[in-house]
């Protein structure tokens, strides 16, 4: 069977107008051309699609069923035409992003809002995860981009380095570690509860990773970790942007230690040309001095 779009259009036009003349007018064709297409469609399907008795030509029950499938063909054609037009314009039909919760969400959310306000055709899907879960969701969701503070283990991804995120080792102001005026030693830190994020990885290179501590509390993400530290449960590393207000109010106190830390987020994306929405996202996440390409798994970024 080789049903054509022209045949499908002829059946759809007849159903809409009720006459060959009306169908021809709708399709900008003479009515004999419409009739020829309908006869060809009946020949292709091997079915009587038209009830030719009476003044108005009607669809048979079989014709009604075939019409449903013809309209699906026409809808698919319209969708393909729209997608091609978007691709030709440089806008991708959809854009999936997964980013680590340690990364500030404002640049991403601001861009999504701006694209919506501009009427951009790209459908943006945003997901938030933590540490190794970022890469797992990137694969599972077949996303286009991910922002991770852990180096990716996947092959063939392009990468753009993003500005470093300063982190502070903090405790609540009433915590025993916050009361000292001298620099804390590893032994002193090891006597208290270290609050961590589940899935913390040696690749983060945290100075507290090798502490021989009495107890550790693992939480699902940095927001839960922040809440636990604010309740005086223990101490831990938090990105500075997340605790800026608490530092100003001195609810959280930076601990005096010999070590500092900064998370090093990277934006990864799959091979291929980036569309307008993806490029806008890279622009929003990168500072002017840090947009140069780097290499990952032997592939240069754009």
**Rough outline:** rod-shaped
Write down how many β-strands occur, each being a DSSP E stretch of 2 or more residues: 15
Model regions low in confidence, pLDDT < 50 over at least 5 residues: 288-302
- Beta percentage is 15-25%
Seen as an oligomer or otherwise, the chain set is single chain
Tell me the radius of gyration: 31 Å
User: What is the mean predicted local confidence, pLDDT?
Assistant: 84
Number of helices: 10
CATH architecture of the largest domain: 3-Layer(aba) Sandwich
Terminal CA distance: 46 Å
**CATH fold descriptor of the largest domain:** D-Maltodextrin-Binding Protein, domain 2
Number of domains: 3
What keyword list fits this structure?
302 residues, alpha+beta, Arc Repressor Mutant, subunit A, D-Maltodextrin-Binding Protein, domain 2, 3 domains, 4-stranded antiparallel beta sheet, 38% helix, 20% strand
Description of the structure:
It is rod-shaped and about 100 Å long. It folds into 3 domains: 5-89, Winged helix-like DNA-binding domain superfamily/Winged helix DNA-binding domain (Arc Repressor Mutant, subunit A, Orthogonal Bundle); 94-158 and 271-300, no CATH class; 165-263, D-Maltodextrin-Binding Protein, domain 2 (3-Layer(aba) Sandwich), CATH 3.40.190. The chain is of the alpha+beta class. The protein contains 10 helices and 15 strands. Residues 288-302 have low confidence and may be disordered. It starts with a helix and ends with a strand. Helix 5 (106-118) packs antiparallel against helix 10 (276-285). The longest helix has 29 residues, at 61-89. A hairpin with a 6-residue loop joins strand 1 (50-51) and strand 2. The chain has helices spanning 5-17, 20-27, 31-45, 61-89, 106-118, 132-140, 186-190, 222-230, 244-248, 276-285, and strands at residues 50-51, 58-59, 94-100, 123-129, 145-148, 158-161, 165-172, 194-197, 216-219, 236-239, 252-254, 261-263, 266-269, 295-296, 299-300.
């Amino acid at each position: 069977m080789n049903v054509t779009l022209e045949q499908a259009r002829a059946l759809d036009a007849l159903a809409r107008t009720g006459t060959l003349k009306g169908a021809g007018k709708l399709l900008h064709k003479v009515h004999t051309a419409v009739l020829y297409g309908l006869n060809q469609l009946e020949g292709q399907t091997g079915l009587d699609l038209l009830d030719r008795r009476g003044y108005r030509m009607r669809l048979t029950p079989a014709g009604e069923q075939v019409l449903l499938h013809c309209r699906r063909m026409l809808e698919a054609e319209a969708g393909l035409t729209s997608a091609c037009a978007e691709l030709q314009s440089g806008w991708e039909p959809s854009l999936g992003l997964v980013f680590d919760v340690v990364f500030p969400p404002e640049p991403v959310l601001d861009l999504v809002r701006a694209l919506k306000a501009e009427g951009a055709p790209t459908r943006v899907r945003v997901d938030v995860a933590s540490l190794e879960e970022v890469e797992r969701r990137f694969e599972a969701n077949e996303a286009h981009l991910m922002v991770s503070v852990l180096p990716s283990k996947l092959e063939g991804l392009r990468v753009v380095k993003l500005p470093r995120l300063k982190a502070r080792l903090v405790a609540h102001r009433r915590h025993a570690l916050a009361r000292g005026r001298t620099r804390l030693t590893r032994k002193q830190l090891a006597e208290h509860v270290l609050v961590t994020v589940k899935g913390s990885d040696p690749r983060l290179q945290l100075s507290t990773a090798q502490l021989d501590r009495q107890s550790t509390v693992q939480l699902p993400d940095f927001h839960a970790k922040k809440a636990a530290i604010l309740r005086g449960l223990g101490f831990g590393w938090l990105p500075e942007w997340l605790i800026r207000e608490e530092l100003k109010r001195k609810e959280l106190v930076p601990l005096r230690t010999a070590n500092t830390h900064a998370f090093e987020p990277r934006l990864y994306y799959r091979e291929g040309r980036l569309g307008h929405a993806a490029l806008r996202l890279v622009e929003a996440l990168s500072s002017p001095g840090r947009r140069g390409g780097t290499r990952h798994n032997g592939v240069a970024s754009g």
